[in-house]
Design goal:
Layout: E1 9-10, H1 18-38, H2 42-61, E2 68-69, E3 71-75, E4 83-85, H3 91-96, E5 98-101, E6 108-113, E7 119-124
Helix pairs in contact: 1-2
Length: 125
């Protein structure tokens, strides 16, 4: 699949911390046990709150509407296959092309958008 300049891809998703998930899995049975021993409904409500908060935290960690990075793959030249984050560049700067240092200090390579919307090697700078 080709990364088009007009589209964006989300950044790598950061999973929830294992300690958070572990505590949530332990808290719910513990709260339900408190309800079984005492019969008071606040234990059930507290367990429900923990479950809802766990789902909310999961939804926030994996949401699609968060900040996006404009990541494209470079085609051709010495940097072929590398991925570049264009989030900090404007459309005009991308249209002019991007000059990047080549691997192992062997000069600089210039990449510009082609009609299909990807960054292709157009020469050395």
């Amino acid at each position: 699949m080709v990364n088009r300049l007009s589209g964006t891809t989300t950044a790598a998703r950061k999973p929830l911390h294992k300690g958070f998930v572990f505590c949530a899995f332990l808290a719910v049975p513990g709260l339900m046990t408190g309800w079984l021993w005492s019969g008071h409904p606040l234990w059930v409500i507290a367990a429900g709150v923990v479950v809802v908060l766990t789902f909310v935290m999961t939804a926030l960690a994996y949401r699609e509407g968060g900040p996006h990075q404009r990541v494209v793959e470079l085609y051709g030249g010495p940097l072929d296959g590398e991925r570049l984050d264009l989030s900090s560049l404007t459309e005009e700067q991308i249209a002019r092309g991007v000059t990047l240092p080549a691997r192992h200090g062997s000069g600089r390579s210039r990449y510009a958008p082609d009609p299909s919307g990807v960054l292709r090697h157009v020469g050395d700078a």
